[in-house]
Amino acid sequence: MDEYFSPIHTYQVCNVMSPSQNNWLRTGWIPRDGARRIYIEVKFTLRDCNSMPGVLGTCKETFNLYYYESDRAIGTAIRETQFTKIDTIAADESFTGVDLGVRRLKLNTEVRGVGPLTRRGFYLAFQDIGACIALTSVRVYYKRCSGVGRNLAVFTDVVTGADSSSLVEVRGQCVDHAEERDTPKMYCSAEGEWLVPIGRCICSAGFEEHRESCIACEVGFYKPMAGDGLCGRCPLQSHSETRAALYCPCDSSHYRALTDPPAAPCTSPPTAPVNMISSVNGTSVNLEWGRPLDSGGRSDLLYSVLCQKCSGEGGQCEDCTAGMGSTSGGEGMGGGGGGTVDRSGVVPVRFVPRQSSLTEPWVTVLNLVAHANYTFRILAMNAVTHLSNEPAPFISVNITTNQAAPSQVIAIRQENASQNSVTLQWHEPDQPNGVILEYDIKYYEKDKEQQSYSTLKAKGTTALVSGLKPGTRYIFQVRARTSAGCGRFSQNVEIQTGKAIPLRYDTMTIIWICMVLVSGLVTFLAIVICRKRHCGYSKAFQDSDEEKMHYQNGHVSFPDVRFYIDPHTYEDPCQAVHEFAREIEASRIRIEKIIGSGEFGEVCYGQMRLPGKRDIPVALKTLKAGYSDKQRRDFLAEASIMAQFDHPNVIHLEGVVTRSKPVMIITEYMENGSLDSFLRKHDGQFTIIQLVGVMRGIAAGMTYLADLGYIHRDLAARNILVNSNMVCKVSDFGLSRVLEDDPDAAYTTSGGKIPIRWTAPEAIAYRKFSSSSDVWSYGVVMWEVMSYGERPYWNLTNRDVIKSVEEGYRLPAPMGCSGALHTLMLDCWQKDRNERPRFCQIVTVLDKLIRNPEHLKSMDTLCRLGTPPMMDRSIPDFSSCSSVDEWLDTIKMGRYKDHFAAGGYLTLGHVIGMNQGDIHRLGVTLMGHQKKIMTSVQLMRVQVLNRSVPSVHV
């Protein structure tokens, strides 16, 4: 009976009196059934040997468990030696005679695992070696993980692994209407338990997740793509009529643009513009209108202009741009009718800013025919207009042009040309637009228009131009004038005058000329001799080293000039290093500690011992082991570059170690490390004069490098080193390159990383570097200094930095930065590299600020290069003018009001973007007036820039 007094059947053995027992009990053949690891649960009772007298030498309290694998049942033909032992099993509890008297036995349960199994089945065997034991139960089983669904995937039953610690990978199958995002997997542990799932399935488009399954979207809902999201309600003006919809079709008369996402509401074309206003000025007209009352629910509203010229009352109309090709505003904007003349001499109708895709509700139409009737239609459109079968709505207006200047003179030809004169003839303009009063002839020597030109007036279509130089090429232009004004000058006509006929002299005349020349030469020599003897002549001035030249052996000797030599031109970099740098014995160097790491290896601090001198502290850059040939060349090239520089604000090279390993570059030691870390460590501890001194030192070093024609390409505060006396020195020449003699030359790199936040836009876009791009980087360094080492552009991504700079935004002034310094930064960040200052100019400005520290106290002081020192306070605030006309009156250039209006410059926002070419194309031909207007535009731009908060847009 067991401990619950229930009868049980057992296999018993109790031969404890006899020694050397070897009794076996074997099971039948047990099929494995796919199990790779089995578990044997044995229940048994065992008598305590101490409770039986006289058996201490032969009684045992353990038995052995064995197994044997086979592919089929083989009966009794198994030898004992073929069995494999699993374990020796002992009892946790044993019974005594007392327990036997009450017929109550203490039952033990032991479990053992066996694996891996490879045959189709197996036998179990139990060996008794002299114990009093009874087997009550033997259970053989294996473990498996039951099927389950997780993350929209189904995992089937799987048997556990063969080892006690093995994991079985099971790949799941997505449920219906689901698809894999990441392969769904789970692992079955040896205990038959599923571990955390990996990967998942997601519901397909048109279906959403619901209790580990994917169900279809209901009518009125949709889901455009596979994902975790739920079905969404159809956007405005759309619907779905079936379940599992991928998108919602638009309602009638509503559309979705090709670029609109499925979640966008359906929209409609806009209604017609409203409130058209027209203003005729000669042969140009300004049109303005109001936005449509209904934009169709979209923000991408655009306008187009249709122009028709009508012959009279009830007459036929035709496209006013037909056969001409209309032009748009922008480059080429000119006065007096403006526009490019076609081969027939007719000026095409011109729309400013353009004829189609207008974003603002206004347009200026130029070059219309005088005294003609026109009809203009303004069409409103958006991205879905072309999807509609209805024509685009419009508003129209009829206008009649006034008198206008004549059209351009064409077909100028040369009738005759002599040494000093040219006869010209031309045809009357195709569109005189009135009675022609006279013609203006403009002429000048070729390529000298900017220096001087002459004009001549003629009543007819023929003119004689005299007083010209013989054998000289001249440019001629003609224009007509009526009571309405002057037309456009004709295209340039180049004519060369006849060559001069050489004069012939007789023999007597030549003799007289020679006598006069000889007499003059004698007189000159007499004067020179007189001055030497009597006029205080001093040879000391003649022999000045600064002014004399030495002639030796027929050659001229010039003062000593250092030229930079690019080490990359050497076939062997070692040759360049040995030519420029000093080789130092490795025994003279003592490395004391590692202070950082660089591109090529570690950077160390050490001491260099020189003969007869005390040890000096140095920085050591080492070349790491396993370097490539390219790394070695670049490493030695940097040493060759530094060896050629000698300036107090450029890092000094002490020498190199190349004849032993590791290869080292030895430079002076800068106690305060990099400038950016130094500034952050001492945030707010320096005066403004100290910070300007830091910037001045960097600019002086860069001036020296620029004068050598050298480009740094990686100028940043992290590459400026600071010594114990707060002297800043330019370092890190790993990205540097040398320029040719051409000051506008630029180096183009074929690859490599560019420090986006410090690099000029043209260097990022085209990989072209110049000294001007170094100036841009210097402006960022100035900003770093004034902000005590802040990261330029803060947490913006590099892509956002590039986009912001291209759109004209610049870093704002750091806290406490004076307007003078920020304006200098803005000068360095000019988009046109030719408008940026040179380093020598920057040094001059900083010197002035150091000598006049009161200018650093003002937050609005301007200090633009090329303007009066520190900007004269008497200059008016042009940015406060309310109109273009008021601005022109302020600078006393009111005569050009009509030129600006005809050119489409209607607001100060248009004017601020003008350049010298735009002003010339408006018809402002006098150089003085051009300069005056351009200077005012530049000052206005500066005033607007310094009002921008929090950032500056140029």
Automatic annotation (TrEMBL):
Record: residues binding ATP: I595, G596, S597, G598, E599, F600, G601, E602, V603, K621
Enzyme active site: D714
Sequence ranges assigned to domain SAM in this UniProt record: 879-943
Gene behind the chain: LOC120065728
Gene Ontology CC annotations of this record: dendrite; plasma membrane
Membrane association type: Single-pass type I membrane protein
InterPro entries per UniProt: Eph_TM, Ephrin_rcpt_lig-bd_dom, Ephrin_rcpt_TKs, FN3_dom, FN3_sf, Galactose-bd-like_sf, Ig-like_fold, Kinase-like_dom_sf
Top-level taxon of origin: Eukaryota
Organism (species): Salvelinus namaycush (Lake trout)
Protein name: Ephrin type-A receptor 7
GO MF annotation list: ATP binding; transmembrane-ephrin receptor activity
One Pfam assignment: SAM_1
UniProt-annotated location(s): Cell membrane
Location of the Protein kinase domain: 589-850
